[in-house]
UniProtKB/TrEMBL annotation:
It comes from Aspergillus wentii DTO 134E9. GO terms for cellular component: nucleolus; TRAMP complex. Residues 72-123 are annotated as: Disordered. Residues 93-106 have a biased composition (Low complexity). InterPro entries: NT_sf (IPR043519), Trf4-like (IPR045862). One of its GO terms (molecular function) is poly(A) RNA polymerase activity. One of its GO terms (biological process) is RNA 3'-end processing. This is Polynucleotide adenylyltransferase.
C-alpha cells in the first residue's frame, strides 16, 4: 500500500488536515506568558538566560490574602523583639559610669537569657527562698546583725578604714556556718550518698563552696557524679570532648536516674528539676532545711577547687571580701546559678585576679576596707567588662587591642604562650557574636579559667552592665559613708559604715538558719 501511494500523483493523494482544534481551556494565561522572551541574535547565552528568567518568573505567582483568618489572634510584638532591631544610636558603646548616688534597679532586657516556662518556674521556686529586701510596709526593717560580732576594741574606732575593716570581718563571721549547721550539712551529704548508692556506681562527691571553704550558712550543696569515659583511648593524651553527643547522652541518662530517685524520696517532696542540654544539671530543694542541692556529671573533680584553695591560702582577704560582695549582689538578684548574674566561682576568680594584680599594695593589717573600695572601683568604673576580659594567671585585663600588641612580640603564632592563645580565642568568640548581632553573648562577662585557658568562667553572666552599675554605686556610697563616719568621729547616726551599701533584712536568713540547726537535734 505504501508503494502504491508513493507512486500516485500528488493531485490524487488524500489530503490529511494537520490543524489542531484550539482548546477552550485557558492554560497558563498569565501576563508573563503573553509576552515572549527576548531573543538576542548575536548571543545564545544571553538568549538562554532571558528564557530562564522568564520561566522562573512565571512559574509561581504570589497571591496575597489581606483578610485575617477566623479564630486567629495576632499579638502585638514590641519593636525590640523583632529580627534586625537595632538599639538607639544615642546609647554609647563604651561603658558610662552611673552618676553618684542611687542607681536604678536592674531591668530585664533582651540581653537577659530567655527561659522556657518550666525553667522560669523552677528558677523562681529555687531562688526565692530568702528575701533580702527592706520594706517598712511589711515590717521588714533594715538590720545590722554583724555588729554583734564586733569586738569591744572596735566599738569606739573613729578611723573610718579601720572601722570598715572590723565590720567586714564581723560580717564574714556572722555569715559563716556554725558548728551545728556544718554538722547538719554533713548529715545531709551522708543521707544523699546513701540514697543514691543503689542508683549510681560511685557516690556523689561534694564540690563548690562547701568543699573550698567559702560557704555561708545558706549556701547550697553541689555534687558531681563521676562518670567513666570508655571512649577515651589509653594511648591518647588528649581527652575527648565532654560535650560530644555520646558523653552528653551518658550524662543525661545518669542525671535522669538521680532525678527519679530524688523525686521518690520524701526529703524533697517532688521539688526536683532537670535542666540544661549542653550542661545538664539536676536541682533539688531539701524540704526540712530549705537548702538547694545541685548535681552535675564529670570525669573528675573540677580543677578550680585546688586553685581556689591555693588563692585563699595566699590571699586570706579573699574570703571576707567574697562574703560582702556576694551579699551585695545576691540582694539585688545578680548572684547565683539560676540568675543571669555572676556565679560563685566567677566572683571568686574576680577577687583572686584583683588580689594578684594588687600584690603587695595593701600593707596594713586592717586594710580590708581599702581593698573593698579598690575592688569596687576597679570592676565598677575602671574597665568595661563587656569588652574587656579578666585573666588570673598571669593576672591582668585583655581585649582585642592588648592581644594584638602582645602577639607582635613573638616571631610566629606557633610560639605564642598558652594563655595568650586562650585570650585570643575568647575575644574571637565575643567578636563573632557581635558580628552575628548576638549582643547578649558579645557583652557577657569574660573570665579566663586558669585551669583551662580556652574556658570562659563568666559566660553565664549576661547582666554585665548591671553588675558594674552595682559596684560603681556601692563604691560611691561607701566613700560617702567613710567620710561621714570620720566627720562624726565614729558616732554616726547608724553606727555602721557597711550598712550604707547593703541595706538588708535578715529575717528569712535567720529562719533558714533555725531550720538547719533544728534538723541536727
Amino acid at each position: 500500500m505504501r508503494l502504491f501511494r508513493s507512486h500516485l500523483p500528488s493531485s490524487l493523494r488524500p489530503r490529511i488536515s494537520l490543524r489542531i482544534k484550539p482548546s477552550n481551556r485557558g492554560f497558563h494565561e498569565s501576563l508573563g506568558y503573553s509576552q515572549p522572551p527576548e531573543i538576542f541574535t548575536n548571543s545564545l547565552q544571553k538568549t538562554l538566560e532571558a528564557h530562564r528568567t522568564s520561566n522562573r518568573a512565571n512559574l509561581v505567582r504570589k497571591v496575597i490574602n489581606t483578610s485575617e483568618p477566623k479564630g486567629i489572634f495576632r499579638p502585638v510584638i514590641p519593636p525590640e523583639n523583632l529580627a534586625g532591631y537595632e538599639p538607639s544610636k544615642e546609647t554609647p558603646s563604651e561603658f558610662v559610669s552611673p552618676p553618684s548616688g542611687s542607681v536604678s534597679p536592674p531591668k530585664r532586657t533582651r540581653h537577659s537569657a530567655e527561659k522556657s516556662p518550666s525553667e522560669e518556674t523552677a528558677s523562681v521556686a529555687f531562688d526565692n527562698q530568702i528575701q533580702w529586701n527592706v520594706d517598712s510596709r511589711e515590717d521588714r526593717l533594715e538590720q545590722r546583725p554583724w555588729l554583734y560580732h564586733l569586738g569591744s576594741e572596735n566599738l569606739g574606732l573613729s578611723d573610718g578604714p579601720s572601722r570598715l575593716d572590723a565590720e567586714i570581718q564581723a560580717l564574714g563571721t556572722y555569715l559563716t556556718p556554725t558548728t551545728r549547721e556544718k554538722a547538719t550539712v554533713t548529715q545531709l551529704i551522708t543521707s544523699i550518698q546513701n540514697l543514691l548508692g543503689s542508683v549510681i556506681t560511685h557516690p556523689p562527691q561534694v564540690i563548690g563552696s562547701w568543699r573550698t571553704g567559702f560557704a555561708s550558712s545558706h549556701s547550697g550543696v553541689d555534687f558531681i557524679l563521676l562518670v567513666e569515659d570508655f571512649g577515651r583511648s589509653v594511648d591518647s593524651i588528649r581527652k575527648p570532648s565532654a560535650t560530644r553527643p555520646k558523653a552528653l547522652a551518658t550524662y543525661h541518662n545518669r542525671l535522669r536516674e538521680v532525678e527519679r530517685a530524688l523525686k521518690q524520696s520524701p526529703q524533697f517532696d517532688g521539688q526536683v528539676h532537670f535542666s540544661g542540654k549542653r550542661n545538664p544539671v539536676v536541682t533539688a530543694l531539701h524540704c526540712s532545711t530549705g537548702l538547694k542541692l545541685q548535681f552535675y556529671c564529670g570525669q573528675g573533680l573540677p580543677a578550680s577547687i585546688e586553685y581556689l584553695k591555693d588563692y585563699q591560702a595566699e590571699y586570706p582577704a579573699i574570703r571576707p571580701l567574697y562574703m560582702v560582695t556576694r551579699l551585695l549582689l545576691e540582694t539585688r538578684g545578680l548572684f547565683g546559678a539560676h540568675t543571669p548574674g555572676i556565679r560563685p566561682d566567677a566572683l571568686l576568680m574576680l577577687l583572686a585576679a584583683f588580689c594578684k594584680m594588687n600584690h603587695g599594695r595593701f600593707q596594713r593589717s586592717d586594710s580590708l576596707g581599702d581593698q573593698l573600695l579598690a575592688f569596687l572601683r576597679t570592676y565598677g568604673t575602671a574597665v568595661d567588662l563587656r569588652t574587656t576580659g579578666v585573666a588570673i594567671d598571669p593576672p591582668g585585663f585583655f581585649n582585642a587591642e592588648t592581644i594584638r600588641e602582645e602577639i607582635r612580640m613573638f616571631d610566629s603564632h606557633d610560639s605564642l604562650p598558652a594563655h595568650l592563645r586562650g585570650q585570643r580565642s575568647l575575644v574571637s568568640l565575643k567578636r563573632t557574636a557581635a558580628a552575628k548581632r548576638n549582643f547578649p553573648a558579645a557583652g557577657q562577662l569574660c573570665i579566663q579559667d586558669p585551669a583551662n585557658y580556652m574556658n570562659d568562667l563568666g559566660r553565664a553572666c549576661f547582666q554585665t552592665m548591671e553588675l558594674q552599675s552595682v559596684f560603681a554605686d556601692a563604691h560611691e556610697r561607701l566613700r560617702a559613708s567613710l567620710h561621714a563616719w570620720e566627720e562624726s568621729s565614729g558616732h554616726g547616726s547608724r553606727d555602721s559604715i557597711l550598712s550604707h551599701i547593703l541595706q538588708v533584712n535578715f529575717d528569712d536568713f535567720e529562719k533558714m538558719r533555725t531550720r538547719i540547726a533544728c534538723l541536727d537535734k
